[in-house]
Design a protein that fits this description.
two-stranded antiparallel sheet; alpha/beta; 428 residues; Trna Endonuclease, Chain: A, domain 1
Length: 428
């Protein structure tokens, strides 16, 4: 099904875990998290006039328990808000199972159905070279990227499972903060870390596209104020947090009468909010290229970095430069927001272009023998040209926004919502 989804233009994610945070006192693990279930394949596509669309697939070679899995898959699809659900089985599917699937809006496919589905997708949007769809490539990626060096346990738990069950707006803040906590273990000289950063960028771009949808509904012409509400969780959350700030301020004033010695008030949005606004603006302007940007990130992490295979440029000779640029912008944002080594960005850009050279300092995993990897050089001239184009758009949009009459000035209470802060720390 992954190949079929790619043939139809989607990006995918395999073996998606679903977990919940539970009270430590009642948890069976020290992490305070317990797994619900897992999903074989998640497909994601961004439709410029329709927003994010997802599909889920349960892929098994066995024929047993097909009817029960239809009920299960319907529940998983509802949890994801998926527009389509696919149940695939090897061999014939019982007629009763097909009837139930129709009632529950689930697509059931046997081997013949799946072959026809893949055939209808064609070959145009599939890589022309490499081993991206081979089981050994995928298994290697899953095995290596799941490695947990000391200090990355929380990040890995979040990346694998908690991301999918957190409120969507929370991931805009939480993902960079989880990455920041583990940054000492994310070394640009480890291919494992390179793949993790690219994978986190895929997840973050997915969250950015959610923000694009929400700001489009709310107030696209005033992106900054709209994104502020999306990031916090809505107007009711803004007001509740503002009331909390007032209570904290009163408490601080009580214990520290001297204004000059009081700590700065925390903001409602993270310290990287300005960079986030810029990234959401870029994704919004390039929304027709968003799905391809997700595909660039997925392919580069699986096939090129960990699979040691072909690059995106080699596998897609007529590739979309705007999609590559949006993927690169997402990696850049994450490096800045999480305070990661900026060489991750240079390595990603060179990886996509297929530019490599031996580097004596690079390892596949922490502590592993050194090996060849990519040249961590400067960004290519093509990316620089697209960056100039984006900056020109930002300047022009800023000039147009400045020409629009502004509303009434903010009062003191409203103005207190728009200060600076450090964004807090991720909590579980």
């Amino acid at each position: 099904m992954r190949r079929a989804f790619w043939a139809l233009g989607a990006s995918t994610r395999l073996d998606v875990k679903l977990s919940a945070l539970v009270p430590l006192a009642s948890s069976r693990s020290r992490a305070g998290a317990e797994e619900w279930t897992d999903l074989d394949v998640l497909a994601v596509e961004y439709i410029p006039i329709g927003g994010l669309a997802t599909a889920v697939a349960d892929c098994k070679t066995t024929r047993g328990a097909a009817t029960e899995r239809v009920f299960w898959l319907r529940g998983v699809a509802d949890l994801f808000g998926a527009r389509a659900a696919y149940l695939t089985r090897g061999g014939a599917v019982p007629a009763g199972t097909r009837q139930l699937a129709v009632q529950l809006d689930v697509c059931v496919m046997d081997d013949g159905d799946r072959a026809e589905f893949s055939k209808q997708g064609g070959e145009e949007r599939l890589p022309t070279t490499g081993h991206f769809f081979e089981e050994a490539t995928v298994r290697r990626w899953m095995d290596i990227i799941s490695t947990e060096p000391q200090g990355t346990n929380a990040l890995q738990r979040y990346r694998r499972a908690l991301y999918w069950v957190f409120p969507k707006y929370r991931n805009l803040t939480q993902l960079p903060l989880y990455a920041r906590e583990a940054r000492s273990q994310l070394r640009a000289t480890d291919r494992w870390a390179q793949a993790i950063v690219v994978d986190l960028s895929w997840l973050y771009l997915l969250s950015v596209l959610y923000a694009v949808d929400e700001t489009t509904k709310f107030n696209l012409g005033q992106l900054g104020s709209a994104l502020r509400q999306v990031t916090v969780g809505g107007e009711h959350e803004v007001r509740e947090r503002d009331q909390l700030k007032v209570q904290i301020r009163r408490l601080v004033e009580h214990f520290e009468p001297e204004p000059g010695r009081r700590p700065a008030e925390p903001d409602l949005v993270p310290s990287f909010f300005e960079d986030l606004t810029d990234l959401v603006a870029r994704a919004s302007r390039r929304r027709q290229h968003a799905t391809e940007a997700l595909r660039v990130l997925e392919f580069t992490g699986v096939e090129t970095i960990l699979g040691r295979g072909s690059s995106w440029k080699e596998s897609f000779p007529s590739y979309d430069a705007y999609a590559v640029k949006l993927a690169s912008d997402t990696v850049r944002f994450l490096c800045r927001a999480a305070e990661l080594d900026m060489r991750f960005l240079d390595i990603f850009d060179r990886t996509v272009e297929g530019e490599r050279r031996p580097d004596k300092n690079v390892r596949a995993l922490p502590g592993a023998p050194v090996e060849q990897t990519l040249d961590p050089g400067m960004r290519d001239a093509g990316n620089a040209a697209l960056e100039a184009e984006d900056l020109a758009l930002i300047v022009r949009e800023g000039e147009e926004a400045a020409a629009v009459p502004s509303g009434p000035p903010l009062d003191a209470e409203q103005a207190s919502l728009f200060g600076g802060g450090d964004g807090g720390t991720p909590g579980e």
